[in-house]
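Ticket #4471: structure export looks truncated?
Reporter: QA, pipeline team
Priority: medium

Steps to reproduce: submit the single chain below to the structure queue and open the exported record.
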Amino acid sequence: MKTEPGPVTVIGLGPMGQAMARTFLAHGHPTTVWNRTAARADDMVARGAVLAATPADALAASEVVLLSLTDYQAMYDILDTAEQALDGRVIVNLSSDTPQRSREAAAWLAERGARLVVGGIMVPAELVGAESAYVFYSGPREVFEAHEPTLRLIGRPDYLGTDPALAQLFYQAQLDIFLTSLSAYLHATALVGAAGVPPKAFLPYAIENFDSISSFLGEAPREIDEGRYPGELSTAIMMGATADHIVGASEQAGIDVALPHAVREHYRRAIAAGHGKDNWTSLYEVIKKRAGD
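Actual output as written to the record:
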């Protein structure tokens, strides 16, 4: 027996929120939306969504309420005005913040009779609902499993466990790689650009480099788990010298040196800690601690 698509509410209609609402509407889910700036809902309403007049009305319309907001403070700002309507609701918060804020939000919502499922969407808005989309989730397993078919519509759900912080932790870890890599690309482009090389001329080499970097990761987890970092192929001293040369080249080019300075500092600290003849993976030992601890 086929089940009719259930109602869904989306609060927050930035590009990500709109993409989620469009996806639910395309799959036949009665969709209620709310946004501080009501005009952002015009396209959704034209597609068949119902615009709630207040956050309380948005909560009342569906058991499952997805939040796509700037941060968790925005959740408090909006839902604090509708506490009575939270009872019995499943709040799927797909906003970005720290893992600890997710734990605090779970407790805050539980006090008001709601349950929190934390999520982190790992694709840009234009890929929501596409085959390549995936979303980290954590929170009560039974709540996640009950609504997994609906959540699956916006991307492959990767459930990480009951701790609400886990999805946020994985989300931020992935963005750590993403943002740092993008900054590294821009820094490298500026470095060659200082010599008059146009970005298009450098791009193919940057792409090839990015594509090859994953090949360096295969043995890293084992070395980190074992705490052994054999340096047969590379050492912290050797790669640290390269990091020093990048700083020098950047200084001579007259471009920003904050990023290469940070990388060089990792190597310097690892060497000072006795890992000079170990593999680059030994930097983990100093990265997992705050400098000076």
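Status: closed, not a bug. The export was complete when the record was re-opened. Leaving a note from the reviewer for reference: The two ends are 61 Å apart (CA to CA).
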